[in-house]
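TOPIC: backbone geometry
CONTENTS: sequence, structure tokens:
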Amino acid sequence: QVQLVESGGGLVQPGGSLNLSCAISGITFGSYGIGWYRQVPGKGRLGVSCMWLNGDRTWYSDSVKGRFTISRNSAETMVTLQMTSLTPEDTGVYYCAATLYAPKPHEMCATSVNDYWGQGTQVTVSS
């Protein structure tokens, strides 16, 4: 069973930075896509950044392009979202998701239909 555990959320001032981590376990075969999604109260989960776990192709939403960076470790057991120049609009619960044989990253991020989800981590950007 694939398990995803997010960490690294918290309260940060505007202009600050946070690194979110997604610890991945249970993946033994197949090609997975990994994505970070943000959810605010009353709204659905929106894709922020997605990538293929065993590839280099990445995608970012326009709102975070140039400020966020998604990356993985060589063992493919950790995916990190580096967030810089944070604004209050970045506030929300951030979820890590995984999908087996995911489409291209921009297609994966366009939908919130994924095989596995983490429990989420709260990010609050406020002064």
Q: What stands out?
A: The chain is about 5% helix and 50% strand. The helical segments are 105-109. Residues 61 and 73 are 22 Å apart (CA to CA). Residues 105-109 form the longest helix (5 residues).
